[in-house]
Specification:
The chain is an alpha/beta fold and 307 residues long. It is built from eleven helices and ten strands. The protein has a single domain, classed as Homocysteine-binding-like domain (TIM Barrel). Helices cover 41% and strands 13% of the residues. The strands form two sheets. Strands 1-10-7-6-5-4-3-2 form an eight-stranded parallel β-sheet. Helix 3 crosses helix 5, helix 3 packs parallel to helix 11 and helix 6 packs across helix 7. The relative contact order is 0.13.
Length: 307
């Protein structure tokens, strides 16, 4: 079955949280503590194990450990000249998990980075060059799709969209592209853009899906998901956090149980037509397993989009 032919696609859970829960010796970091992407080079089998846990839980799509895989983020660790090596290793680790499991698709994760152009942290040209470099590496390594995720700045979002589709056109690569923005509890992206304005920016591009991830739990995503259900003509994705984070004994924790998480997403699928569902910060293989069990063969609701 082709990716496009599956009515409901389940994505994996939190990469960062999974890595934090690994019992890893200090030596694997080579002094680059906090650079999760570097682990694809030093302990690729542990990254494969993480991917495999989500596939076995029921995920159809796993995301590569490349959220911070541009030279902008890697440069904070002195790794700016190893972009292709790290992204290629990440795809290889994910592909190995799919081969072991016998099914699944690999999505190349492209995060927002740590510098926002709207705030003057970086020029659009420098940001575009960094995105091109990462996306070229992911495409060459053989991802099945690309997810441009956690977009917080509309100028950053437009820059990564243009860069991505320029690369795919040059390579004549037919790789589906997912787009996922982060809407804060205030109802807008970090830089103040609402979901309708974000949709207007994305609409000219032939994206596979558009939706939300991170920042909040599913309950705070409802209004944006409802808007998309009535106004976005394509597929909708929803990858919420495991609720809003809480600090307990100095550690960030996420309170939402697998049952509650799966129940919320079942409503999004059955009532509002979400057709790609998964998890962001805090979500574990247990959350994905419960989601798979709960939605079963649920068909996303048919939508009447306002023209």
């Amino acid at each position: 079955m082709k990716l496009q032919d599956k009515e409901l696609l389940i994505l994996d859970g939190a990469c960062g949280t999974s890595i934090q829960n690994m019992d890893l010796p200090d030596s694997v970091w080579d002094g680059n503590e906090g650079c999760n992407e570097y682990l694809c080079v030093t302990v690729p089998d542990r990254i494969t194990e993480m991917h495999l846990s989500f596939l076995r839980a029921g995920a159809d799509i796993i995301e590569t450990n490349t959220f911070g895989g541009t030279r902008i983020v890697l440069g904070e660790y002195g790794l700016q000249d190893r972009v292709r090596e790290i992204n290629t290793a990440a795809v290889k680790a994910a592909r190995k998990a799919v081969e072991i499991h016998g099914a699944g698709w690999v999505a190349g994760s492209v995060g927002p980075g740590t510098k926002l152009p709207s705030l003057g942290h970086i020029t659009v040209d420098d940001l575009a060059a960094a995105y091109r470099e990462q996306i070229e590496a992911l495409a060459d390594a053989g991802v099945d799709l690309i997810i441009l995720e956690t977009a917080q700045d509309i100028l950053q979002l437009k820059t990564v969209l243009v860069s991505c589709f320029d690369v795919l056109e040059e390579k004549k690569a037919e790789i589906p592209v997912m787009v996922s923005v982060t809407i804060e509890s205030t109802g807008t992206m970090l830089a103040g853009t609402d979901i309708a304005a974000a949709a207007a920016i994305i609409e000219p591009f032939p994206v596979f899906s558009f939706g939300l991830n991170c920042a909040t739990g599913p309950e705070d995503m409802l209004s944006s998901i409802r808007w998309l259900s009535h106004n976005w003509p394509g597929r909708i994705s929803c990858l919420p956090n495991q609720g809003l984070p809480e600090i307990i004994d100095g550690k960030t924790t996420y309170p939402m149980t697998p049952d509650a998480y799966a129940g919320e997403l079942r409503t999004f699928i059955g009532d509002w037509g979400v057709s790609l569902a998964g998890g962001c910060c805090g979500t574990t293989a247990e959350h994905i397993a419960k989601l798979k069990q709960t939605v079963g063969n649920t068909v996303p609701a048919k939508r009447e989009v306002i023209s």
